[in-house]
Each structure stands twice: as structure tokens, then as C-alpha cells.
Amino acid sequence: MKHLLTLTLIQLVLVCSAFSQGILDNLQIGGNFQSDSYYYLRDSTIESAEAKEKLLSNNYLFLTLSTNNISFDLRFESYQNPILGYDPRFQGTGIAYRSISYKNDWLGITAGNFYEQFGSGMVLRGYEERNLGLDNSLDGVRISVEPFKGLNFKGLIGKQRFFWSQSKSIIRGLDANVELSSIFPNLFNSLTFVIGGSVVSRYQADLDSKYRLPENVLAFSIRVDISTSWLTFSTEFAHKYNDPTYRNKFTYNDGNGINTDISIFTSGFSLLLGFHRYDNMEFRTDREAKGLELQLNYLPSLTKQHIYSLPAFYAASTQANGEIGFKGEVNYTIPSKTLIKDEFETNIAFGFSRINSIDTQRIDDFTYKSKFFGIGPELFYRDYYIELRRKLSHQLELKLAYIDIIYNKDVMENEGSPLYGKVKSKTLATEFTYSFNKTHTLRIELQHMWSKNDSTVASDDKKNGNWFAFLAEHSIAPHWYFSLIDQWNYGNANKQYQVHYLKFLVTYIHQTTRISLGFGREAGGIVCLGGVCRFVPISYGFSLSVTTSF
Amino acid sequence: MKRILIIFFVCLLFWKCDRITPPYLENPNANDTNKYTQKILLEEYTGFRCGNCPEATEIAHNLKERYPDNLILLSVHSGGYARPTTAHPYDFRTPIGDELDNFFGCSKAGNPNGMVNRVGFPNKTHILREGQWESVIQELLKRKPKLNLKLSTSFNPANRTITATVEIKFLEASLPNYHLCLYLAEDSVVQYQRDDRKTPPDIENYVHNNVLRDGLTPTWGIQISDSSLPAGTTIVKQVNYTIPDGKDWRIPKLKVIAFVHDKDNIFEILQVDESYISP
Question: To bridge B77 with a disulfide, which of B18, B40, B42, B82 should be the other Cys (CB 3.0-4.6 Å)?
Fold first, then answer.
């Protein structure tokens, strides 16, 4: 008996080790690390933000272990304490994300934290955007099934991350994606034709003593994507049932949204057109949430994200409670030897966009009427721009841009209350890139912005009037970058704020590691990515950023 | 394929969605008791020797006219501009006002200025110029009140005692650091004030309103409860105060200002109410 037991034990150990051998042979470890620190100094001229701790630091380490069909993901985060401009509630250290996933040809299962997006995200998008201090991961279970190629189902249930805890509500979601052109290839030829639909439901108990609130709020969306060799068309329509929240001032209207993009392209030419309308389409995992807290959906933005730093002060943030807008952009490449008899092409881009309020009419304290294609009287944002890019020689490239923006600062930064008024700005920007040889490149950027606020209320707006900006960047490939940036608000109505925001930056890159050290003033303001924005304070000091992946 | 689609649509049927039809309020017929107003305290830091202060005071009064149901004013005379002179020996200063001024650093920042519900403390954005007051008021009016205050007062002329009764209803769960403060203020005090807009700038019979006189409670108030109370709880606090001898305060012009603030945390005033002591 004793021998038999020993034998069984030996057999078991052998099997286990053989099994673990298989797992270990295929084990792969990967990840990345990011550390951002800021040492704050006092600068009374610009009234810079100060931190009692002086040094603040955000750190992230992501690790993924995968073997055969199983993977294990983990993200460690440490904010000691959060850099100014990030929500102070991030303060702390811990494992913010952990999950185990299994995946084979037709089935995928994730338990723990996960990110997910249904369609363009209009009813559900859990994502991380560190530059915004945003992490909307869900914690729960997700299952995806692909019974055959072209057909995909996803189902999930979970709670959303809220700093170091979770939302009060539970989210349930279901998504179907049907790639008709894969299922019926003969029917569609070279056309890609995809349809999809999603349903998302939120449960949050009604503990409110004032309002009768829906505990289960449902939203659904349908979408179509078509693409050929010269055209892409995508549209999504979303509807959300009554969801009275703090942000929509407890309105009982249903919400809806539509987002459509068309692009047509041939060689050297492209045309992009876009339209969207959102009405009461903010969807969060808590009725009381505000700011960047607990956003469950993402409403695609319409406007171009201007790359030059001065017009970027006035970037449109999507007004989920109601906006209607359209955009257009034409890109054209003038072939070489057309304008000037040399071998270089000229790229021209022209675009415009306009966003207004939607046309609504109050019925009572709780509901309103809105015309679907009605354009409201209030302008939120308008821009048009012309950009030109051309090589002048093999060493020198020139870029020119003119950007004209009207930005409703009250709507974008003050929840619509009159304070700043609208900002009308016109920017002329030029950029030269000169390559001395294969290693040395110099980039010079000059911008001037004429800007005016039409505010009627006296406000202490620190950024207004005309600006001038200068940037010089010398790169020594492949390792070094040296930059000098100056933004000068010489036309500020308040003489005290007519200051230079001057900054130096040195960056060293080696393989996958990037180290960047900066010193100087930051003009602050709002930082927007895809129409989602966060406020960054005016600051002065040293910054150190390290990123690496392995 | 067919089977999968059937399963998918059956799943959809189980999806729950609640539709709310009118009435939208839990208790629509209840005499408006469910509608609580967020009231806001504008503490103006001033001094009778401060030549720019009357203009700020006018702005405060205009705001009071614009937000009559929401705004409550209090003038705190403290700092260098409130120090009496031989020519004008009347002393508006109070120990309570000086303690607040030292703590929040208002007069050091240069009079006139003010705090709106003390928002922005401790991030050093609490001291606001008169031009900034309205935007913060507008911002605060968008918020749902965390609690409601109902202040009633009575005065016994025999022993010169004021009795203030405050009913506090928590609309959200409370925190143990919530403190109740009761201050006494007087209207229509006719005294000297400098006004640099006038030539000469000396106004001998300027009417000072909302002048902080004393506290019925200590400066930082009294603790409401040593534990967190759930939403819906109502608590009643009563405070008696005897007007000290030798004060020239006129009873019909005296009023009590009651507020609850988040002591030792961000010191923000969460709700406020006022009441004259004699009907």
C-alpha cells in the first residue's frame, strides 16, 4: 500500500512537472513602466500652483504574463502624491488592475479588470488615458464568442473603477458584430460591410429622497461600417432611456446621439465629412458623478485637434448634454513640378467645423422638447484652417498654417455660466525643419495668435489677448533631443500676466527607454484628447518623465 | 447561426429598463418641503479706513438683490484698515473676526476681498476679489445642498438673552467634523468710512450693514454629532446668548447668522441661514 502511494505521488509530480514544463516553455513576460514627477517651485509672477510636498509623482508599472491560452495582467500604480491637475483622490499605492484571461479560436473569457469598447463607444467605452488622469476600467467578467469568422458576440458584467474603489452601480452589456462581407464574400466582392448593435444597462439603487429615479437605465446602439478602396462610411445611432442625473439637472428625457463619418480618397486627394448630434447622451456609472468621474460611454469628437500649442488652448470638449455639429476637411497633394519646377510635392489641407447648441424647448421642470435637426442659437465652437507642407530642398521642410477659432469658453470651461465669454482667435504658425545631416536636425516653430474675449463679467482670466510662441528643437539621432519653448502672453489685458512661459526640455532615448527632463513654466489650461478634457494648473519647476517597455 | 441569434434576442428580452412616468418627485404634494435651497454666505473682509472697500460693499449688495433667496452677507472688519485712529476711535473689530482673518489671511491679501462659502480653502483660492464673487456664487447654486438649516430666534428683553434654535436636516450622510456656527451681526451702523471715489474721501455718516458683532458659539462652532448621521436625519440645536453689558448694539437691527461648515477638513460652508432676533 505504502509503495503504491509513493508510486502515485511520483507519477503525480512527474505529470505536474511535465505540465508546468509546457507552461513554462511558452511563458512570455512583457510590460511597461512610466514615471512622471514634478518638483514645484514658487513663482509669484505667474501665481504658479504650489504643492506642500514640493515633489509629486505618478508611477505606473504594467506586467503581462502569458502562456498557451492564458494570460495574466497586472498594473501597479503609485501616486505619491498625484501631480497637480490630477484628481487628488488618486493618492495612494496599489494594484489598480488585475485580470486573468483565457482565449482560444472561438471563445475568450476575462475575469477581473478589463477595458472594452462597443462600436465607437457611444454606449460603452472603458478605457485608460493617463494624460487625462482617466481610468474607466471595469471589474467583473467578460465573455466573447466567435462561432465562425465574421460573427462576434461579447457579454460583460462589472463595476467601474472609481479611483481606489468602485462605482455604486453594476453594468451589464451585450454586443454583436456581424461582418456580412466575411460571411457572404460573394455578395460583397471587395466591399467590407459590417453591422453591429449593443445594449448596456446600469443598475443603481434609488436612495434619493427627492426624485423618483429609474434604477435600471438602458441604452442601446446600432451601427454600420462600409469601406471600399476609395470610400469609408461609418455611422452609429445610440439611444438611452430616461436617466436623470446631477449633470443633466435631473431631466427625465431620453437621450440619443448620432455620429457619422464619411471619407473619400484617391491618390493625392481626400475628403472627410462628419456630422454628429448628441442630446442628453452623457452616460455615467453614478448619477451624482461629475468632471471626469465614472464616464461609461465616449462620444466621438468632431473637431480637429490642432497640433500647434497656441490654438490648442482652445480645443473643443464634447458637450454630451447637447450639441450638434459638422465638419469637413480636404487634403490635396500637388504633384511635383507643377507649381515650382523641382522634385517636391506640396500638401494642402483645408478644413472647417462648427458646433452649436441643440434646439430645445422646456416643457416643465423635468422634460423638454428637442427638434432632431434643429440647430440651437448658441455657438459652442467654430474653426477653419489652412495648412500647407512642402519641402524646399532635401534638407529643409516648411509648414505653414492659419487657424481661425471661435471658442465659447463659458460652455467649455464654466458649465455655460457667463464669465469668460467667447474667445475669437486667429493663429498664424510656421515650422521649419532643417536636416544638417543624418544625425543633426533642427526644428523651429513660430506662432502668433490674435485673440479677444467678449466677456461682459469682470473675471480674473489669466490667459487672454495676444500670444507669441517660439519653439526650437535640436535632435541628435537617435538619442538626444533638446528643446526650448516660449509662450508669451504679451497682449494680456492684465499687465501682471503679460509673461513668458519659458521651458527647456532634454530628452534621451535609448531603445525602448525614454527619459525626459524639463525645467520652466507651464502655461496650464485645459488639455483635451478626443473631446475629453482636464484642467492643468499654471506651474513652475522641474519635470522628470521616464518610460520604458520590456 | 439562427440559434445564436435567437439566444441573443432572448437575452435582450430579459434586459431590464425602468421607465419613470410623472410624477417625477417622490412626494410632489408635500408643501415644497422637498425643495431645499442652497444658501451661500459671502463674508466680506473690510475696514472703515479702506478707501476701496465701499465699492466692493456695493457689489455685495447688488449681488444680494440679484440672489435675494440665496445670498447672505456678513462684513468682517479686521486688519490694518479696521484699526481705530484718534480721529475715528470707533472699533468695529471683534475677537472672532480677528481669529477668522488670521486663519484665512484675508486682510493680509489686501482689502477688500471676500470668501464665498469659504470655497477654495485650503487650496489658497478662497480669497476672492469682488469681481470673482458672482461666478463662484453661480457655481455653488448649481450644487444640490448637502443639508438644510432652519433658524428661528427669540429675544428676552428682561435678561437680554437671545435664543437661537436651528433645525438641521441632512440630505446626505453627515461627517463628524460638521460644526454649527452662530454669529451675531448688526445692520445700519452709522459711522465713519473712507471712500476713495469721493472728494474728499471722508464719509462721516456712512451706513455699515451686516457688521459682525460676536459669536453665539465659539469661532469654529459646536460639533453637531460625534458620529456620521445618515441622510434624512434631523437634529435640533439650541443656543442661548446674553448680550454683554456696555454694548451699543440696537436690538431691532441685530440678526443671527447660522451656518454649518466642514471643520478641519476644507472648512467649506455647506448651508447657511439668517434671522433677525426680534420680529
Answer: B82
DSSP string for residues in A10-25: HHHHHHHHHHHHHHHH
Rounded to two decimals, the ipTM of the complex is: 0.72
Q: What angle do CA B126, A57, A500 make, to 5 degrees?
A: 60
Query: Does the beta carbon of B234 lie under 8 angstroms from any beta carbon of chain A?
Result: no
Q: How far apart are CA A346 and CA A388, in angstroms?
A: 7
Q: By the CB < 8 Å criterion, does A210 face chain B?
A: yes
B107 domain-assigned: yes
- Side-chain-facing half-sphere of A251: CA atoms under 13 Å: 22
pLDDT in tens for each of the 550 residues of chain A? Answer: 556 555 555 665 555 555 555 667 789 999 999 999 999 999 988 888 888 899 999 999 999 999 989 999 999 999 999 999 998 889 999 999 999 999 999 999 999 999 999 999 999 999 999 999 999 999 999 999 999 999 999 999 999 999 999 998 999 999 999 999 999 888 888 899 999 999 999 999 887 766 889 999 999 999 999 999 999 999 999 999 999 998 898 899 999 999 999 999 999 999 999 999 999 999 999 988 888 899 999 999 999 999 999 999 999 999 999 999 999 999 999 988 877 778 899 999 999 999 999 999 989 889 999 998 899 999 999 999 999 999 999 999 999 999 999 999 989 987 777 778 899 999 999 999 999 999 999 999 999 999 998 875 555 677 889 999 999 999 999 999 999 999 999 998 888 889 999 999 999 999 999 999 999 999 988 888 888 888 889 999 999 999 999 9
Q: Which domain holds residue B265?
A: 37-276
Question: Length of chain A, please?
Answer: 550
The answer for residues whose C-beta is within 8 angstroms of residue A356's C-beta and 6 or more apart is A323, A324, A325, A375, A376, A377, A378, A379, A380
pTM of the entire structure?
0.70
The partner residue sitting opposite A211, judged by closest CB among B24, B139, B231, is: B24
Is B9 in CB contact (< 8 Å) with chain A? no
> Any chain B CB within 8 A of the CB of A417?
yes
CB contact under 8 A, B129 and A460: yes
Query: Which residues have a Cβ under 8 Å from the Cβ of A307 and sit 6 or more positions away?
Result: none
Nearest chain A CA: its distance from B202 CA (Å) = 28
Asked, for residue B231, whether it belongs to a domain, the answer is yes
- CATH code of residue B107: 2.60.40.10
Inspect the interface and report whether the beta carbons of A246 and B20 lie closer than 8 Å. Answer: no
The residues with which A93 forms a beta bridge, in sequence order, are: A78
Q: Give me the number of domains chain B comprises.
A: 1
| Cα angle, residue B206 at apex, residues B203 and B212 outer, rounded to 5° | 130
CB A256, CB A238: distance < 8 Å = yes
Residues B10, B8: Cα–Cα separation, whole Å: 6
Domain-embedded: residue B151: yes
Residue B56, domain member (yes or no): yes
Contact B18 A208 (CB under 8 A): no
